[in-house]
Amino acid sequence: MALTEIPTYVGVPTAAVCAVQPWLLAGAFSVAIGAVTVRNFRIYRIFSDPFASTLVMRNHVLFGWLAEILAVDVVLLSKNAHFQTVVVALLYVSKAALLLFSLWLAAQTRAAGGGYSESKSIAFAIYNLTLVLCIGLPLAYTDALGQPFQFAVRSLAIILPVTGLLGALFAPKLVGSGRIDKPETSASAEMEPAFVSFLAKRAKPAAPRAPASQPMSVSALAALN
């Protein structure tokens, strides 16, 4: 969705293009960052709650939160054009708040391991997006640099975060799918041969012992002599 924003910067902007641009950019940002944010929030709840084994966050709850984020965009972008300045300001404030919350979650869950190691990739993608926006956003609104430069900056500000987000999320899965890991030997598996050997020794009948020799009496010794 974000990549479809780039062709709208080419040529003379029309009324339709100007109306579509905010919807594409705001929707793409909300879907991408909102999705990784609610996903990271579930990981954060699991690792921060001592009773996480009994805490289950269903997918429909996460999708509901994502729908609420998109609903904010719909409400703001549906306002009259006379309030365009206010709408743009509110959009920036809402996106900045979402990005800051996502940065905080990324910092909190960056050390998650096990089956949640994807949080490291999500944190990398969020850091990459924040850096690009901090550099590219002021340059994109600098008219003194010229239209070609603004087009290049806006395009890179879209392509780099999208590429980084997709690469951080899917590259580890693609690399890991072609690697065969050696199964780990559990402690119970290591103890099993010794335990079986111990049981075999206990079950094995003991060998018959030879009868102990009785000492000979004095009369028997005298008879032998």
Automatic annotation (TrEMBL):
Compartment annotation: Membrane
UniProt keyword annotations, A-Z: G-protein coupled receptor, Glycoprotein, Membrane, Receptor, Transducer, Transmembrane, Transmembrane helix
PROSITE patterns reported in the protein's UniProt record: G_PROTEIN_RECEP_F3_4
One Pfam family of this chain: 7tm_3
One Gene Ontology term, aspect cellular component: G protein-coupled receptor heterodimeric complex
InterPro entries assigned to the protein according to its UniProt record, in alphabetical order: GPCR3_GABA-B (IPR002455), GPCR_3_C (IPR017978)
Gene Ontology BP term (one): gamma-aminobutyric acid signaling pathway
GO molecular function per UniProt: G protein-coupled GABA receptor activity
KW Lipid metabolism (keyword) present: no
Keyword Repeat in annotation: no
Membrane-topology annotation of the record: Multi-pass membrane protein
Domain G-protein coupled receptors family 3 profile: 9-174
Transmembrane residue ranges: 20-38, 59-77, 83-107, 119-139, 151-171
Superkingdom in the source lineage: Eukaryota
Protein name listed in UniProt: G-protein coupled receptors family 3 profile domain-containing protein
